[in-house]
Amino acid sequence: MTLQMRPTPGDRHPVPPYQTPRLRLKPKARPSGYVDGAWWPRSNELTAELPDLLAVLSVRLGAIGRVLYNLDEWPKAPVKFATGGGLVRLDGFQNQPAHTLEVLGVNRSNVVLLVVSPNADTDHAHSTMMAAAAPDDDTSVAGLLGISAGDGADRLRIHAGHLRRRGR
């Protein structure tokens, strides 16, 4: 992915991402499937990972207003998050679908991303991201990650326990 510049409201100079996020998106054409692409963050620190992701997604969505995340998968984040010269609302929910992140533009556009674990094997992460970004892919989140429903629940409990042990 090439480095994308992000214009900020009221600013004449674009703000580039510090580090290009590992992101694959489906083409903008007719949406298919549950996710619009996949993101492979480098860490489990949502507030550290979001600035670069939002800088790139703002090219597609325009100004970003809100991010929805699963509370069991990420450390609790502040309600308002300053990035790129603006404030973004961060909303963590227990019922946010597992392994997803939803980014909403202020113009009501949105992108739902499959979140690949930062600890994933490089080959597995790459193939998962490519499948999620395939134009006609309609595979479920669990199917894209190659996990059964029971296995997914077990992995989620293990991940949540890991976050709690780390003081999240």
Task: Give the strand order, joined by hyphens, for the main sheet.
Answer: 1-2-7-6-3-5-4
Give the count of helical stretches. Answer: 4
Tally the beta strands. Answer: 7
Q: Strand portion, in percent? A: 15-25%
Using the alpha-carbon principal axes, give the shape.
Answer: globular
pLDDT < 50 stretches: 1-14, 148-168
In the residues, how many domains can be counted?
1
How would you characterize the largest beta sheet? Answer: 7 strands, mixed
| Terminus-to-terminus distance | 32 Å
Percent helix: 25-40%
Rg on CA atoms, Å: 15 Å
Order of helices and strands: EEHEEEEEHHH
Q: How would you characterize this protein structure?
A:
The chain is built from 4 helices and 7 strands. The chain has one domain. With 168 residues, the protein is of the alpha/beta class. A 7-stranded mixed β-sheet has the order 1-2-7-6-3-5-4.
Compact description:
By secondary structure, the protein is an alpha/beta fold. The chain has helices spanning 46-61, 122-132, 141-145, 149-165, and strands at residues 23-25, 37-39, 64-70, 80-83, 86-93, 100-105, 110-115. It has one domain (30-165).
Give the SSE layout.
Layout: E1 23-25, E2 37-39, H1 46-61, E3 64-70, E4 80-83, E5 86-93, E6 100-105, E7 110-115, H2 122-132, H3 141-145, H4 149-165
List keywords for this structure.
168 residues; alpha/beta; seven-stranded mixed sheet; 7 strands; globular; disordered N terminus; disordered C terminus; DUF5994
